[in-house]
Design a protein that fits this description.
Length: 240
């Protein structure tokens, strides 16, 4: 990746809900699958743009726990596309010095998908460029429940005491335990909700909504979101 551009108010961690692939395709009288393919191709471009703008962590919402309710054909097409992306991302991560990790419950995915994810994570684990997280079979509520179960088992086994449970300990049991919470959340396509994405982590995150469909979201649109973030007066619990 090219050298990062200088900026005074750049969010360290950006989350993106990549919405609007289907509507992008419908607008062009194309099958929904072509919209998802266009959206997948856009991910690499935005990863490069994010790093060049100074963003260190980027987390994208690729497939939610609720997406299983879509038609069998669409789910099958999405899984095929995601597997191809994971396999192709090995070369992308090498080229861009990009570490890639998956957050979510991958145990529910097919064995070959799990193997592709583990290969990619292992291959890119030492890269220190953009830290890229892909939320796959991910839901904020599911993540919280899984974290509660981890803590409950450790209490039961005497590893931790119930009085030890606090925000820091809980955060350390989340899928995102070793990365900072997002500073900025972007959602494309005009919807203005977080759709069960990183519910715990978004407590103090600035949110930016745009009508642009994900396949059309580009560096200029990312810069608009960053400009919005830079103009916000960041407060935590009533303090600057």
């Amino acid at each position: 990746m090219a050298k990062k551009e200088e900026s005074k108010k750049i969010p360290s961690h950006v989350g993106i809900i990549m919405d609007g692939n289907g509507r992008w395709a419908k607008k062009r009288l194309l099958p929904r699958a072509m919209g998802h393919s266009a959206g997948a191709r856009n991910v690499e471009t935005i990863c490069e743009d994010a790093w060049n703008l100074g963003i260190k962590y980027l987390t994208v919402y690729a497939f939610s726990t609720e997406n299983w309710t879509r038609s069998d054909d669409e789910v099958s097409a999405l899984m095929k596309l995601l597997k191809q992306y994971m396999e192709g991302c090995i070369e992308k991560s090498r080229k861009n010095n990009m570490r890639v990790r998956v957050i979510g419950d991958i145990s529910k995915l097919s064995k070959d998908m799990q193997e592709a994810i583990l290969r990619l994570e292992d291959f890119s684990k030492d890269f220190d460029g953009l830290q890229f997280q892909v939320a796959l079979n991910y839901g904020g509520r599911d993540e919280i429940i899984r974290s509660v179960k981890k803590i409950a088992r450790q209490v039961k086994d005497g590893i931790i005491d119930i009085e030890d449970i606090n925000e820091d300990l809980f955060s350390s049991r989340l899928d995102t335990s070793d990365i900072p919470d997002p500073d900025l959340l972007i959602r494309t396509s005009g919807e203005q909700r977080i759709s069960n994405f990183m519910l715990w982590q978004l407590a103090y995150t600035e949110m930016y909504f745009t009508d642009v469909y994900w396949p059309d979201f580009n560096k200029k649109e990312l810069e608009k979101a960053i400009e919005y973030y830079g103009g916000r007066e960041r407060r935590y619990g009533g303090r600057k």
